[in-house]
Amino acid sequence: MGRRWSLGVVVGLLLGAALATPGTAAAQIAFQPCGHGNEFACAHLSVPLDPSGATPGAISLTLRRHRATVGEARSAIIALAGGPGQAAVPFAEQFGELLGRVAATRDLIVFDQRGTGLSQPLSCRAFDGHLSPVQVSSAVGSCAAQLGPPRAFYTSADTVADIEAIRQAGGYEKLVLYGTSYGTKVAELYAQAHPNRVEGLVLDSVVTPGGPDTLERPTFAALPSVLRSICRRRACRGVTRDPFGDLGRLVARMRRAPLRVRVPGIHGHRRELRLRPAPLLEMLLAGDFSGALRAAFVTDVRAAVQGDTAPIGRLFATAASAESEGEEFDGPLYFATTCEEQSFPFDRAASPAARLAAARAAAGALPASTFAPFSASDAIGLSDIPACARWPYPKTLAPAPSSAPLPAVPTLILSGSEDLRTPTANARELAREIPGSHLLVVPYTGHSVLGEDRSSCSSSALQALFANRPIHQCRAGAEPARLRPPPLPPRSLSPLRPLRGTHGVPGRTARAVELTIADLAQQLLLRIEAGGLEALLFSGGVQTGGLRSGWARLHGSTVSFHDYSFIPGVRLDGAIKPEIVDLHVVGPDAVQGTLRLGPRHALVGRLGGQAVRLPASSGATAAIVASDAGAGSDLDHLVHPGDAGPQRPLPGVGLRGGAVPAMRR
Length: 665
What we know:
Elements: H1 7-14, E1 32-33, E2 41-48, E3 58-66, E4 75-80, H2 92-99, E5 107-111, H3 133-147, H4 156-170, E6 174-180, H5 182-193, E7 198-204, H6 217-230, H7 243-256, E8 259-264, E9 270-275, H8 277-286, H9 291-305, H10 310-321, H11 331-341, H12 352-364, H13 376-382, H14 385-388, E10 411-416, H15 424-431, E11 438-442, H16 449-452, H17 457-466, H18 504-531, H19 533-537, E12 542-545, E13 549-555, E14 558-567, E15 570-576, E16 581-586, E17 593-597, E18 603-607, E19 610-614, H20 620-626
Parallel strand pairs: 4-5, 4-6, 6-7, 7-10, 10-11
Antiparallel strand pairs: 1-2, 2-3, 3-5, 8-9, 12-13, 13-14, 14-15, 15-16, 16-17, 17-18, 18-19
Helix pairs in contact: 4-5, 7-9, 9-10, 12-13
């Protein structure tokens, strides 16, 4: 966040009128100071449980409003988060920062959709704690029974009715709908239902009005191009020539037998993993939010194809450990929306077993190339079908998608070129349905473009749309270093080239130390990108297991090594701090010795009688020594000093967590 608009500038633009005396645009909504700051005002709005009025009951929506800074707003921006099931209110400030000057003449309204966050969230005893996919499927039926008949009133159409209620109660003539991921679907449905009330659309990471596809076919179709794009401009030189082919070979091997691998955990204790194809697919989806993870995936799959399974095992463990560190979704709301409104390939009147059998038959009837190198079974497992097969449907058909046209209003459609969750094919399909819309495909970017785009391209296009200026397509430019697959991990000390100025085993040991520190930096970056900077650094630090053995920890400004090994036979013990280094090189294949802090943050010492100096130019070494993570430094610089650091989380961003499936949006 804040790459295009500094927080100070945005606050300066917006703060003055944040709590100005309400005019006609807020006559029916009693906004009050929130109490924790002056930027947004808070309110609640009661809306009918059943928008048709046939069923009694009401829901209280929680709202946040940022007043326009120029004049009295006649329109408002409604910011919609991902999901279904993600709260939007926690991201209110980030929404305001991203929108920048677009919000100067419009009020910004952020609200938690019914059943999420602070808007009477749905909850079920069956969903307490972290559940496996099998447990989720089993819990859905009992959760639906606990929710009872009101579970039918949490669809996207019901949220559309809530948005119209907010518009009317706020006294706004028109709305700008800004949606991310699932929020784009809600925005599109509102535009279809109330075309004359829409001033503009900003649709980031598109789910089409009738989407998502229940078998996620666009995701599978995008796999080859996304993986091969990682290797453009010879970025995979020395690693692989065909990352998609490598994936196919590894999946075929896993089909014959699960991949067994023992990996050190975050405390160094080894555990055995049995990997099947499905975790590979989940790691690829996790890469939507971490370019570094997807780059490492290419290298680690290639290593596994060549017989070294430790890297892919550790990558899986890293991704899995970050699941509980992402932002939370409301699982019951997710299924109440998804199961009720999606048209699954089964008869709703059939039994759960018959529904699942019908879906499997429908998927199995498709050409094998539809899901290659994965299978129809993998597609079913990735989908919501196993869970929604247990949903107690009323004796009605699935709601038909709206066929109403989308209005020809100023529209910006944003898509990350490497987004697997909501592939660019979705965005292109939608762009054809909105006359005069602008489609912007942003290079080197996955899911949630405005939050992940490290260039100024998408934010500039957003400002240009509402300033009636030309919108320019993004240029690819040079690939960021953090997105280039790292080299294949060495499997022994012997093939290493000695560190410059050294020779023999001592020189190769010095090179191994350099590579080991760089590996730790890469692992820290993966953990931070996957779990969020604040969630990790302010909850006891960041820990990671070594590739071959041991573990390491970043806490405050100290990095500590505990028998941490990247190359067999070479381990590091000790600590690196900004002002002092005490790093011991040990292991049966290493020349043992100790490295200290030298001039200009270099590591210096003697190994086997040879003077060793790992200079500042060795990248990660000096960056770790010089960093002060406790002061909030950009930890991406630990690996790639020239790149921008991790972004703050935004709606639609995060690994799957709690009881929500991997394909949540």
